Every structure is written in structure tokens, then in C-alpha cells.
Amino acid sequence: MNIGILGLGKISKRVANGIIHAKDGVLYGVASRNIEKAEAFQKECHAIKAYGSYEDLCLDDAIELIYICTPNHLHKEHIMLCLKHHKHVICEKPMLTNREDLKECFDYAKQQHCFLMEAHKTLFTPLNQKLIQMVREGVIGKLSMIDARYCSYLNVHEKDLSSWVLRGDVGGCLYDIGVYPIAYANYFAQSKLKHHDMMIRRKKEGYISQAQGMLMYENGVMAHIVCSWDASMENKGFLYGDEGYIVCENFWKNTRAYLIKNGEKTEISVQMESDFTGEVEHAISCIHQGLLESPVLPYAGSDEILKVIEEKRECD
């Protein structure tokens, strides 16, 4: 399947590597608003074509699937552009920053008969695919509690204060790194949310710098979520059952976790070329099956993530 990348920012080279290693995936085109930048990226990542505008990428009939890598506040515009030209779409997380826009985009995708998925690579890494199978098989007994943390100190003084990253409406740590533990918990709970309570700290500039929350699911599983730009800590995901637990450092991209059960610690490891390959291969498979949504992360799944973020409490 011929795949294009729309937007050549910070994460796009890692996305390109994921596409290159994906079964049935071809890195066909890369698009920037600057043709020189696109051509340099094309050469470095061995793409077939470069485009000096996003419109040109969408107009190429050879392109079947587009991966959007632009800043958060531009996602809706670019999703609608791709769908207008009947391209299937994977959009980097957070796909949208409000639930109304999310519904509008998924409704339009159905109207255009195009596949649309939010890019949450965490759910599709080989390790997490293995761990979800172990949880389903009862390796740790009945899952009861999930604890997921992603904290990375951000020196704001090194940032441009006018950057979208620090905007209160589309930036902040919840949209940047908080979506990882929320998506992780929702995925492993394998149940709809029943109740959630997310507390946040907001800086005087307007952006959220820290958040902590409790999630309760309909099946009784509970989850504790932490994300922060104000603190550095061990970034780990824990899956607790009544017979043991699994712990994984950097749970969104790792190839190694540990099972602690009956007083013994057992390593769980997998091979992985790129942490972006799994989600790309999943999208390709869905498209080949004629699906318009991912069964792993459909519209409802992305909506639940945004619901947790939107319904938060300020902490002074």
C-alpha cells in the first residue's frame, strides 16, 4: 500500500522508519510546505516522491493512505483535506483536541468511505500485543488495577512561549504525554469507562503542566494515571492481577517487561524494528478488510480518551 506522510516535523522520521518496516507498506510520498525540505527528507528516508504542498500529496492518485504529522491545532484541517480527496488517514495523537471535532471527522470519513484512525502506537507494539494476550489468558489472574505514568521535565525557558505546544487549548502535558497512560489504561482494562476524576495543574501561561487521575471501568478495573512536565520520575506501566503483576518501563515503546508471580521475576521480551510499525500494519490490514474504523481503537476509543481530558478539575 502506497503511504504518504503529511507534515515533516520532529516525529516524521520515526514514522517513516515505521512505514519502511511495515509489511505491505511503501513509503511513497512525503509532503512539506517547503519543497526543499520535502526533497531532503525524501532523499534521507528513500521515499519515492516529494511534494511542496499538502494538496499535491492528496491529489496524487497513487497515494492510498496518509499519515498526518502536523501540529495538534492543524489536525482537523488536514484530516478533512485528506478525506476530501478520498485518502485513508492515520493521524498522530492527539487526533483532535475536542470531542465535537472528533465526531465531525469520523462522520465525514464514513461519508467518504475512508478509514480513519488515531495514531496511538502504544496499543500496537509487539510487547503490548503480547501483554494483552497474557492478561486475557489469565497469566496474572483477574486484572484489578492499572498504574501508568509518563513524566518528562520540560524547561519552559528553553521553549518559545508563543509555540502551540504551550497553548492552553491544544497544547500542554495532557495532550502531549498524558494521552499515553490514558490510552494504555483504557486498552488493558478492556471495558468502557464508568467514572473518571482527572485533576490538573495549570501554569499562569494557560497550559496544563501536570495531571493525575483515577479511572474506574464497568468491569471493576481501576487505573491510576500520572503525567507531568514539572517532575521527573520512573515512567512505568503496571498491570496488577490477583495472582501476580506485570511491570514495563517506558510502556509506550519498550521491548521488555517483567512478570512477577509466586515470588519469581520472569522477563518478557520481543523483537521490534520500529515502535510505529505495528499501528501502520494494523491500518493497512483494516483497509484491506474494507473497515472504516479500527476494532482496536475506533471512534469510541478516541472519544473516551478525550472525555477524560475534557472533564478535568483545576487544582490551585
Set down the secondary structure blueprint.
Elements: E1 2-6, H1 12-20, E2 26-31, H2 35-45, E3 49-51, H3 54-59, E4 65-68, H4 75-84, E5 88-92, H5 99-111, E6 116-119, H6 126-136, E7 143-151, H7 173-189, E8 193-202, E9 208-217, E10 222-228, E11 236-241, E12 245-249, E13 256-261, E14 264-269, H8 277-288, H9 299-310, E15 312-314
Parallel strand pairs: 1-2, 1-4, 2-3, 4-5, 5-6, 7-10, 8-15
Antiparallel strand pairs: 7-11, 8-9, 9-10, 11-12, 12-13, 13-14
Computed CA radius of gyration, to the nearest angstrom = 19 Å
Q: Ends: how far apart?
A: 50 Å
Strand arrangement within the widest β-sheet reads 14-13-12-11-7-10-9-8-15
* Poorly predicted segments: none
Number of helix segments? Answer: 9
Q: CATH topology of the largest domain, what is it called?
A: Dihydrodipicolinate Reductase, domain 2
Care to describe what's here?
This protein is α/β, with parallel strands linked by helices and 316 residues long. It folds into two domains: 2-119, Rossmann fold; 126-271, 2-Layer Sandwich (Dihydrodipicolinate Reductase, domain 2). 32% of the residues lie in helices and 28% in strands. It is built from nine helices and 15 strands. The protein has helices at residues 12-20, 35-45, 54-59, 75-84, 99-111, 126-136, 173-189, 277-288, 299-310, and strands at residues 2-6, 26-31, 49-51, 65-68, 88-92, 116-119, 143-151, 193-202, 208-217, 222-228, 236-241, 245-249, 256-261, 264-269, 312-314. Strands 14-13-12-11-7-10-9-8-15 form a nine-stranded mixed sheet. A six-stranded parallel sheet has the order 3-2-1-4-5-6, sandwiched between helices. Helix 4 runs parallel beside helix 5 (99-111) and helix 7 packs across helix 9 (299-310). The protein is globular and about 55 Å long. It starts with a strand and ends with a strand. Keywords: Oxidoreductase. This is Gfo/Idh/MocA family oxidoreductase. It comes from [Eubacterium] hominis. Residues 129-246 form the GFO/IDH/MocA-like oxidoreductase domain. InterPro entries: Gfo/Idh/MocA-like_OxRdtase_N, Gfo/Idh/MocA_domain, GFO_IDH_MocA-like_dom, NAD(P)-bd_dom_sf.
